[in-house]
Fold this protein.
Amino acid sequence: MNEHMKFPFGDFQRNGPWPGHLLTDGPDPPVLRPEGSDFVVGSNLTLSCFASSNPAAHYIWWVNGTAGPSGQQLFIPNISGGKSEVYACHATNPDSGLHSTAEIAVSISETLTQPGVLVNNSGPVENKDSVNLTCVPPKSLVAIVWFNDGEILLSGRQGLGLSPDNRILTLEVVTRNDSDLYQCEARNPDVASTRAPITLKVIYGPDIPIVTPPNSTFVEGYALTISCFSTPILLLSTRGRLMGHLSHQL
């Protein structure tokens, strides 16, 4: 004999004669949770479903009105479309046959959001400082690739380090040759998005000045011009003026 009993904290059904038989409850409306919120063509989609139920509910997924796989988690690799897909989780109490359904619409974009780049040192000094460039990708799970002046940077190059996920590029003890354009790209099997290049300027110098002419013997009465030149990244300051080249005529 089956009876429906009310308790102060909710409704329960009693199966069979009382006592000694378990009460069945639920399922409550399912809760759907996508892993991530920025989905693009080529990325992976994972949805989880949970509904409170006694005994534990059985789950079946529906995609755009078509029955799909069973289980609490739905995994779809390399999603396609570039449109909105409707996913529904149908939870059933195996003893009572009661059921409840929840659905979620997931928008699938055909383009990746442009990644950002963070620089921990905007004015590194030659032979003294290191620089970390951090690529901040979109929320989708993507691969990261770094470029230097249009060429792909690979780990193993002297003076360069990459984190295991390629998101952090480290220039160890920079030199003036590291002054260049850097950019990161976020990509999945189908689409890619590249950050506009950023310019890294390494502060160096002044080098040992070069004095011309090198001769020290001159004929009396001739005009003499002596030039002094060095190569800093910043202009030299002399007598309160900014000068990159100092020329003095005697």
Summary: Residues 1-18, 234-250 have pLDDT under 50 and may be disordered.
